[in-house]
């Protein structure tokens, strides 16, 4: 998993509350278990018209936001079913950070397992960040995970809180497998001792 230390990029405004995982990645795209290729399906029902053409009014189809790395979204982002394809689709599109006032628990935890930083802020801070994100190509935010700080295009900054364990995992690019491999020597030592003390179980 790629490390997340500091991210600078365009932030796209998505001022919609209760964006569920079916909106993030519609069920038609759930036939694969691959983590790649899902970016085309991200917000598909909003991004595309019925004939498959792009909806020019959807934020990620606008020239200034096509390469957005950050989403600033309304309350209760990622609610609905627990599909892990939702963070997969965000990551495949290029989104590494989502900022909202709250997230559904399962989606929130799935983000950390896939190298995405979900940040919870208060409503006043979200309003400011939403305004920053509405500046088109000038909507550049810097998210500094080491210092737990978001800096806007005008130089103003907002602090945020994060569980220290989750912060450690993102800073070091550790998913569940990576965390296990960190204990590799201890696991090997245990297995050798266990095999020696229980030779009949070998």
Automatic annotation (TrEMBL):
Alphabetical GO biological process terms: L-leucine biosynthetic process
Family under the similarity heading: Belongs to the LeuD family. LeuD type 1 subfamily.
Function text: Catalyzes the isomerization between 2-isopropylmalate and 3-isopropylmalate, via the formation of 2-isopropylmaleate.
Cross-referenced InterPro entries: 3-IsopropMal_deHydase_ssu, Aconitase/3IPM_dehydase_swvl, AconitaseA/IPMdHydase_ssu_swvl, IPMI_Swivel, LeuD
Secretion signal span: none
GO CC annotation: 3-isopropylmalate dehydratase complex
Record's catalysed reaction(s): (2R,3S)-3-isopropylmalate = (2S)-2-isopropylmalate
Provenance organism: Rhizobium chutanense
Name the record gives this protein: 3-isopropylmalate dehydratase small subunit
EC top class named in words: lyase
Gene from which this protein is expressed: leuD
MF terms (GO), sorted A to Z: 3-isopropylmalate dehydratase activity
Key words, A-Z: Amino-acid biosynthesis, Branched-chain amino acid biosynthesis, Leucine biosynthesis, Lyase
Pathway assigned in UniProt: Amino-acid biosynthesis; L-leucine biosynthesis; L-leucine from 3-methyl-2-oxobutanoate: step 2/4
Ranges for domain Aconitase A/isopropylmalate dehydratase small subunit swivel: 1-122
